[in-house]
Amino acid sequence: MNWSWLLPTGNGIPVLMYHKVWPGVNDSLTITPEKLRVQWQFLKQAGYEAISLSEYLEIAAGQAERKGKQVLLTFDDGYRNNLTYAYPLLKEFKWKATFFIIANTLSETGQKQESEIEQKMSLGELRLLDPAIVQLAMHGYEHENMSKITLAASQDALRLSLQAFENSKLPFHKVLAYPYGARPGSDFAQLKKCMAELGIKAAFRIGNKVSEVPAQDVYEIKRIDIKGADTLKEFDVKLTKGKLKPF
User: Which one of 53, 133, 157, 181 counts the least CB within 10 Å of its CB?
Assistant: First the structure.
Protein backbone atom coordinates (compact mmCIF):
# COMPACT_ATOMS: atom_id res chain seq x y z
CA MET A 1 0.00 0.00 0.00
CA ASN A 2 1.21 3.51 -0.83
CA TRP A 3 1.50 5.46 2.43
CA SER A 4 3.45 8.41 1.02
CA TRP A 5 0.32 10.59 0.91
CA LEU A 6 0.54 10.78 4.72
CA LEU A 7 3.89 12.55 4.49
CA PRO A 8 4.14 16.35 4.20
CA THR A 9 5.55 17.83 1.01
CA GLY A 10 8.85 19.60 1.62
CA ASN A 11 9.29 23.18 0.51
CA GLY A 12 13.03 23.55 0.16
CA ILE A 13 15.87 22.05 -1.86
CA PRO A 14 16.18 18.26 -2.15
CA VAL A 15 19.72 17.12 -1.35
CA LEU A 16 20.15 13.72 -2.99
CA MET A 17 22.64 11.21 -1.59
CA TYR A 18 24.28 8.69 -3.92
CA HIS A 19 27.18 6.31 -3.43
CA LYS A 20 28.42 3.88 -6.10
CA VAL A 21 27.60 3.88 -9.82
CA TRP A 22 28.19 0.51 -11.47
CA PRO A 23 26.84 -1.40 -14.49
CA GLY A 24 24.36 -4.14 -13.72
CA VAL A 25 23.94 -3.35 -10.01
CA ASN A 26 20.95 -1.60 -8.44
CA ASP A 27 20.93 -1.98 -4.65
CA SER A 28 20.92 0.15 -1.50
CA LEU A 29 24.30 1.76 -2.24
CA THR A 30 24.70 1.27 -5.99
CA ILE A 31 22.89 2.53 -9.07
CA THR A 32 23.54 1.66 -12.71
CA PRO A 33 24.72 4.44 -15.06
CA GLU A 34 21.57 3.86 -17.14
CA LYS A 35 19.24 4.32 -14.18
CA LEU A 36 21.15 7.40 -13.01
CA ARG A 37 20.66 8.90 -16.46
CA VAL A 38 16.92 8.17 -16.33
CA GLN A 39 16.63 9.85 -12.91
CA TRP A 40 18.50 12.92 -14.08
CA GLN A 41 16.48 13.14 -17.29
CA PHE A 42 13.39 13.03 -15.08
CA LEU A 43 14.80 15.89 -12.97
CA LYS A 44 15.59 17.97 -16.01
CA GLN A 45 12.18 17.39 -17.58
CA ALA A 46 10.57 18.37 -14.25
CA GLY A 47 12.43 21.69 -14.39
CA TYR A 48 15.15 21.05 -11.80
CA GLU A 49 18.65 22.52 -11.97
CA ALA A 50 21.55 20.84 -10.14
CA ILE A 51 23.50 23.51 -8.25
CA SER A 52 26.93 23.56 -6.65
CA LEU A 53 27.67 23.14 -2.97
CA SER A 54 28.76 26.76 -2.67
CA GLU A 55 25.52 27.94 -4.28
CA TYR A 56 23.51 25.72 -1.94
CA LEU A 57 25.37 26.97 1.14
CA GLU A 58 24.62 30.60 0.29
CA ILE A 59 20.92 29.76 0.09
CA ALA A 60 21.05 27.67 3.28
CA ALA A 61 22.73 30.55 5.12
CA GLY A 62 20.09 33.02 3.92
CA GLN A 63 22.63 34.92 1.81
CA ALA A 64 20.92 34.14 -1.51
CA GLU A 65 17.41 33.33 -2.68
CA ARG A 66 16.37 29.97 -4.05
CA LYS A 67 15.70 30.26 -7.77
CA GLY A 68 13.03 27.94 -9.09
CA LYS A 69 13.40 24.18 -8.70
CA GLN A 70 16.92 23.41 -7.52
CA VAL A 71 18.56 20.20 -6.34
CA LEU A 72 21.93 19.38 -4.78
CA LEU A 73 23.51 16.12 -6.00
CA THR A 74 25.94 14.49 -3.57
CA PHE A 75 28.09 11.37 -3.81
CA ASP A 76 29.69 9.80 -0.74
CA ASP A 77 33.03 8.04 -0.18
CA GLY A 78 34.94 9.06 -3.34
CA TYR A 79 34.48 5.89 -5.37
CA ARG A 80 36.49 5.67 -8.58
CA ASN A 81 33.31 4.68 -10.40
CA ASN A 82 31.97 8.20 -9.70
CA LEU A 83 34.75 9.49 -11.95
CA THR A 84 34.09 6.78 -14.55
CA TYR A 85 30.30 7.00 -14.75
CA ALA A 86 28.82 9.98 -12.84
CA TYR A 87 31.33 12.64 -13.90
CA PRO A 88 30.78 12.24 -17.68
CA LEU A 89 27.03 12.41 -17.07
CA LEU A 90 27.44 15.62 -15.09
CA LYS A 91 29.38 17.14 -17.99
CA GLU A 92 26.74 15.99 -20.45
CA PHE A 93 23.91 17.53 -18.42
CA LYS A 94 26.02 20.62 -17.65
CA TRP A 95 25.23 20.04 -14.00
CA LYS A 96 27.16 20.33 -10.75
CA ALA A 97 27.64 17.92 -7.86
CA THR A 98 29.47 17.45 -4.57
CA PHE A 99 31.78 14.51 -3.82
CA PHE A 100 32.31 13.84 -0.09
CA ILE A 101 35.78 12.31 0.26
CA ILE A 102 37.19 10.12 3.06
CA ALA A 103 40.28 12.14 3.89
CA ASN A 104 42.81 9.37 4.56
CA THR A 105 42.29 8.09 0.98
CA LEU A 106 44.08 11.24 -0.20
CA SER A 107 47.39 9.52 0.66
CA GLU A 108 48.75 6.28 -0.74
CA THR A 109 48.88 4.78 2.75
CA GLY A 110 45.14 5.35 3.13
CA GLN A 111 44.30 3.48 -0.08
CA LYS A 112 43.23 -0.12 0.51
CA GLN A 113 43.27 -3.22 -1.66
CA GLU A 114 39.58 -3.40 -2.52
CA SER A 115 37.38 -4.95 -5.16
CA GLU A 116 37.02 -2.84 -8.30
CA ILE A 117 33.58 -1.52 -7.37
CA GLU A 118 34.86 -0.40 -3.94
CA GLN A 119 38.06 1.32 -5.07
CA LYS A 120 38.43 4.99 -4.18
CA MET A 121 39.80 7.77 -6.36
CA SER A 122 43.47 8.52 -5.94
CA LEU A 123 44.75 12.05 -5.42
CA GLY A 124 45.76 12.16 -9.07
CA GLU A 125 42.28 11.11 -10.17
CA LEU A 126 40.64 13.69 -7.92
CA ARG A 127 42.76 16.33 -9.64
CA LEU A 128 41.10 15.36 -12.94
CA LEU A 129 37.78 16.70 -11.68
CA ASP A 130 36.88 20.18 -12.87
CA PRO A 131 36.04 22.18 -9.70
CA ALA A 132 33.47 24.10 -11.74
CA ILE A 133 31.58 20.79 -12.05
CA VAL A 134 32.48 18.87 -8.90
CA GLN A 135 33.19 20.45 -5.55
CA LEU A 136 34.91 18.36 -2.89
CA ALA A 137 34.13 18.21 0.82
CA MET A 138 34.82 15.99 3.84
CA HIS A 139 33.45 12.61 4.85
CA GLY A 140 35.46 11.88 7.98
CA TYR A 141 39.10 10.86 8.18
CA GLU A 142 38.64 7.09 8.24
CA HIS A 143 34.84 7.09 7.78
CA GLU A 144 34.34 7.15 11.56
CA ASN A 145 30.90 6.53 13.02
CA MET A 146 30.65 9.56 15.28
CA SER A 147 27.83 8.05 17.32
CA LYS A 148 30.16 5.25 18.43
CA ILE A 149 33.39 7.06 19.22
CA THR A 150 34.31 9.65 21.83
CA LEU A 151 33.91 13.37 21.33
CA ALA A 152 37.71 13.72 21.39
CA ALA A 153 38.05 11.09 18.65
CA SER A 154 35.46 12.89 16.52
CA GLN A 155 37.26 16.19 17.00
CA ASP A 156 40.57 14.54 16.04
CA ALA A 157 38.95 13.11 12.91
CA LEU A 158 37.83 16.59 11.87
CA ARG A 159 41.28 18.09 12.43
CA LEU A 160 43.01 15.25 10.58
CA SER A 161 40.55 15.58 7.69
CA LEU A 162 41.21 19.29 7.33
CA GLN A 163 44.97 18.72 7.47
CA ALA A 164 44.82 15.96 4.85
CA PHE A 165 42.86 18.16 2.45
CA GLU A 166 45.15 21.12 3.01
CA ASN A 167 48.21 18.94 2.41
CA SER A 168 46.67 17.60 -0.80
CA LYS A 169 46.40 21.12 -2.30
CA LEU A 170 43.01 20.14 -3.72
CA PRO A 171 40.33 22.82 -3.77
CA PHE A 172 37.77 21.80 -1.16
CA HIS A 173 35.01 23.12 1.03
CA LYS A 174 35.09 22.98 4.81
CA VAL A 175 31.85 21.05 4.89
CA LEU A 176 31.19 17.61 6.38
CA ALA A 177 28.89 14.75 5.51
CA TYR A 178 28.68 12.67 8.69
CA PRO A 179 29.84 9.12 7.90
CA TYR A 180 26.84 6.80 8.19
CA GLY A 181 24.83 9.98 8.78
CA ALA A 182 25.73 9.50 12.45
CA ARG A 183 26.22 12.25 15.02
CA PRO A 184 27.10 11.98 18.71
CA GLY A 185 24.27 12.08 21.23
CA SER A 186 24.92 14.07 24.38
CA ASP A 187 28.14 15.60 22.97
CA PHE A 188 26.61 16.91 19.74
CA ALA A 189 26.53 20.53 20.93
CA GLN A 190 30.23 20.29 21.75
CA LEU A 191 31.00 18.85 18.33
CA LYS A 192 29.09 21.67 16.64
CA LYS A 193 31.12 24.17 18.65
CA CYS A 194 34.32 22.46 17.52
CA MET A 195 33.21 22.56 13.87
CA ALA A 196 32.49 26.27 14.14
CA GLU A 197 35.92 26.90 15.69
CA LEU A 198 37.59 24.92 12.87
CA GLY A 199 35.78 26.94 10.24
CA ILE A 200 33.56 24.07 9.10
CA LYS A 201 30.61 25.89 7.55
CA ALA A 202 28.00 23.14 7.45
CA ALA A 203 27.38 19.43 7.96
CA PHE A 204 24.97 17.03 6.27
CA ARG A 205 23.14 14.13 7.94
CA ILE A 206 20.59 11.85 6.26
CA GLY A 207 17.15 12.52 7.73
CA ASN A 208 15.30 11.75 4.48
CA LYS A 209 13.49 15.06 4.26
CA VAL A 210 13.67 17.94 1.81
CA SER A 211 16.17 20.37 3.31
CA GLU A 212 14.67 23.61 4.57
CA VAL A 213 16.21 26.82 3.27
CA PRO A 214 17.36 28.91 4.96
CA ALA A 215 18.55 26.09 7.24
CA GLN A 216 17.46 26.11 10.88
CA ASP A 217 20.76 24.43 11.80
CA VAL A 218 23.59 24.34 9.26
CA TYR A 219 25.13 21.35 11.08
CA GLU A 220 22.04 19.20 10.58
CA ILE A 221 21.17 19.62 6.91
CA LYS A 222 19.06 16.69 5.73
CA ARG A 223 19.75 14.56 2.68
CA ILE A 224 17.58 12.04 0.85
CA ASP A 225 18.97 8.53 0.43
CA ILE A 226 18.58 7.51 -3.23
CA LYS A 227 18.81 3.75 -3.76
CA GLY A 228 19.44 1.94 -7.01
CA ALA A 229 16.41 -0.21 -6.27
CA ASP A 230 14.08 2.83 -6.26
CA THR A 231 11.55 2.91 -9.07
CA LEU A 232 11.12 6.18 -10.97
CA LYS A 233 7.81 6.68 -9.16
CA GLU A 234 9.55 6.19 -5.80
CA PHE A 235 12.29 8.61 -6.88
CA ASP A 236 9.58 11.17 -7.70
CA VAL A 237 8.00 10.71 -4.25
CA LYS A 238 11.37 11.13 -2.52
CA LEU A 239 12.00 14.41 -4.33
CA THR A 240 9.07 16.05 -2.55
CA LYS A 241 8.49 13.85 0.51
CA GLY A 242 12.04 12.74 1.32
CA LYS A 243 11.04 9.14 1.96
CA LEU A 244 8.41 6.65 0.94
CA LYS A 245 6.70 5.81 4.24
CA PRO A 246 5.86 7.80 7.40
CA PHE A 247 7.05 4.95 9.65
Answer: 133
